[in-house]
Specification:
The protein is an alpha+beta fold. 15% of the residues lie in helices and 36% in strands. The strands form nine sheets. The chain has an eight-stranded mixed β-sheet, sandwiched between helices. It has a five-stranded antiparallel β-sheet with strand order 9-10-14-15-11, with no helix packed on it. Strands 1-2-3-4 form a four-stranded antiparallel β-sheet, with no helix packed on it. InterPro entries: 6-blade_b-propeller_TolB-like (IPR011042), AB_hydrolase_fold (IPR029058), Peptidase_S9_cat (IPR001375). Keywords: Hydrolase.
């Protein structure tokens, strides 16, 4: 019998084959696991997400909410399922009866609904959407909302400092995001409160067992464009009163509030410092009996969130915190050393790591008897479904895992070096599936965005594609990355292009010295967002790279201060200076040194990116061409900052082709 023909990721079009699972929930009898399966439709050039039910007894899988649209965020109450769908044009809450198969729309918002969940022990549900700030606390949907004429004037009058957002466009100053309540039997809506969800968090709200109290996150100061602090609040459905549970701290970010099954505690992630992006989250516990709030992870230098980088996952909605039914412990995700782990945490803060080695735990759901189900990713196994019971993980067959049985994967090796100041430089080197140690391979340094993110031990299609085409891919987590403690994360703050640059060069030197298969004469570099900034910066500081691809990049902090949707506060914090010191902003800008560039550069940018505006690529490209440097620019219309992850699939494919083609142009054969 002949050897089985293996598939690989050598073609950029392999992106169309990607399938993911997410948003897992258990049926009340715990015999069925519901989840969202997201696929790519190459004909419609878009995505579709269907809700599936997997029988845990016989492993069968069946679609219960149709393909062809984006259906996600399922939440179950007995035989009644709520979910979000864009089938009517604007994402709304829909109802599905698992027995009768009845399917109907429940909300009729003029703005997309962003979240839905049941209120325990009731026929009511919570959802979030944008409403007019003048909205009364109670109203009834106009079911003919689609016929309402909206403002189509070809102009905007702007008076707010925060007037735009990537992926949204201009912000309507008369609207804000509200947490609302509604029953499944009528269209009457109770508007509870303005609502916010912190950076990197997922849980919008939680309820006590009786369904009488709702816990949610909102901004401490509404309408202040400079203040991004948030707290946890409690809403009493009977008295309609709202209590600020984290008011013992005047500042900070507190989110993911999750109430224990016995109703005695509320655990949350956050920190008590004024909002700054690099501040790590810790764990805080609110005791309802003593009305006291304390940090239970004092002295534990870990980031409590999933900050892993990938272009694979879609529609990930599950919270990062889950209580055990005994209310004596809970489970939480962390980002550490290139892995996303899951910890069992006691009320006193004692922690036990129960995660599989060298993996990313993307989502967790827990049964009524304390059995954990998880979606797990590894570099060579895109998606595992596993159950944690009696102290060990056991895999459960799933259709996504089965679909990758015939693929060959690039493998990951950990690398670690010591920075000039004694800090850690950790990362991952990706080896082609047919790697041979006696050959020489060109190497691509791939720099993540953020900078407060983390390359991780998960499936990453882009790296698989580049490796399949004969490249080593180096994924470094320089200072500024999450996963290595607060000092490491804070090491890039007000220091862009300094220690982070030397960290990356140290890693390059290290792998060249340690591995004879690295071809030091064929080095390439790419990255997006912050990684795009670093790509621009690197080629102004060194000529050791044969070619570079800069994506959704930053080149001029002076102009970016006024054009980015977050420029007026983020880049002031990141550089330590505002527009009153343009000389200091300019010192950190790659454009200031553009004449020094000798490396051929391809700039890839989305035309409608409001985070790193298109003008950033334009300026750097113009500067390069002005000084007769080798540069080209690839611009994608009708796309934003998330192009490489959730953008139009055909654009994502063309982007991958362009990166490889540019490197191949300058690669020695």
């Amino acid at each position: 019998m002949g050897a089985r023909n293996m598939k690989n990721f050598k073609e950029a079009s392999s992106l169309y084959d990607l399938t993911t699972l997410s948003s897992t929930i258990l049926s009340e009898d715990e015999q069925t696991l519901f989840y969202v399966k997201t696929t790519i439709d190459s004909v419609k050039d878009g995505y579709q997400a269907a809700i599936y039910a997997k029988n845990l007894q016989n492993a069968s899988e069946v679609s219960i909410v149709e393909d062809g649209f984006i259906n996600n965020c399922p939440t179950v109450n007995g035989t009644k399922l709520l979910y979000l769908s864009n089938k009517t044009g604007i994402t709304q809450v829909h109802f599905y009866d698992l027995v009768s198969k009845e399917n109907r729309q429940l909300t009729f918002s003029l703005s997309p609904v962003m979240h839905v969940q049941w209120i325990q022990n009731s026929q009511s549900f919570l959802f979030t959407t944008q409403l007019d700030k003048s909205t009364e606390s109670f109203f009834t949907w106009d079911k003919n909302f689609a016929d309402i004429t909206t403002n189509t004037a070809p102009f905007y009058r702007i008076s707010n400092l925060k007037y735009q957002a990537d992926g949204v466009g201009f912000i309507d100053p008369e609207k804000t995001t509200y947490l609302c309540e509604q029953t499944i039997d009528n269209f009457d809506v109770t508007v509870i409160s303005p609502q916010a969800t912190g950076y990197g968090l997922r849980r919008v709200a939680d309820c006590n067992t009786e369904g009488t109290i709702i816990y949610f996150e909102r901004n401490l100061v509404e309408g202040d464009d400079y203040n991004h602090d948030s707290g946890i609040f409690a809403y009493d459905r009977n008295s309609k009163q709202i209590q600020h549970l984290t008011q013992s701290f005047d500042t900070g970010i507190f989110g993911e509030g999750t109430v224990s099954p016995d109703g005695n505690y509320l655990v949350m992630v956050g920190n008590s410092l004024p909002y700054e992006t690099p501040n790590q989250f810790g764990l805080f516990l609110y005791d309802f009996k003593t009305t006291s709030l304390k940090k239970i992870t004092e002295g534990i230098d870990i980031q409590f969130a999933d900050n892993s980088v990938s272009d694979y996952y879609q529609n990930v909605r599950n919270p990062i915190i889950h209580w055990h039914p005994d209310s004596k412990k809970f489970y939480v995700q962390t980002s550490e050393y290139g892995s996303v782990k899951i910890y069992e945490v006691l009320l006193n803060g004692e922690m036990l790591n129960i995660a599989p080695e060298q993996a990313v735990v993307k989502e967790v759901v827990i049964s009524k008897v304390g059995v954990l189900y998880a979606l797990i990713s590894k570099p060579d196994r895109p998606l595992l479904l596993a159950v944690y019971e009696d102290g060990e993980w056991k895999e459960i067959s799933n259709s996504v895992e089965e679909s990758y049985q015939d693929y060959s994967f690039a493998s990951y090796q950990e690398i670690e070096y010591t920075a000039a100041d004694g800090g850690v430089i950790h990362g991952l080197m990706v080896l082609p599936a047919d790697f041979q140690a006696d050959k020489k391979y060109p190497l691509i340094l791939n720099i993540h965005g953020g900078p407060y993110m983390m390359h991780a031990m998960n499936f990453y299609h882009e790296t698989q594609y580049l490796a399949a085409n004969g490249y080593l891919v180096l994924l470094v987590n320089p200072r500024g990355s999450y996963g290595y403690g607060q000092e490491h994360t804070y090491g890039v703050y007000e220091k862009y292009g300094k220690g982070d640059y030397t960290d990356l060069m140290t890693a390059i030197d290290g792998v060249i010295n340690d591995h004879s298969f690295v071809d030091a004469s064929q080095l390439f570099v790419t990255g997006g967002s912050y990684g795009g900034f670093m790509t621009n910066w690197i080629i102004t500081q060194t000529n050791r790279f044969k070619a570079a691809v800069s994506q959704r990049s930053m080149s001029n902090f002076v102009s970016m201060f006024g054009t980015s949707d977050i420029g007026y506060y983020f880049y002031k914090d990141e550089t330590g200076h505002d527009i009153s010191r343009p000389d200091k902003l300019w010192e950190s800008s790659p454009l200031a040194y553009v004449e020094q560039v000798e490396t051929p550069l391809l700039l890839i940018h989305a035309k409608d990116d409001l985070r790193c505006q298109f003008e950033q690529a334009q300026q750097f490209y113009t500067g390069l061409r002005y000084f007769n440097k080798t540069a080209e620019m690839l611009v994608f219309p009708n796309s934003g900052h998330e192009l490489s992850r959730t953008g139009r699939p055909s654009y994502r494919v063309e982007r991958l082709k362009a990166i490889l083609d540019w490197f191949e142009r300058y690669r020695s054969k």
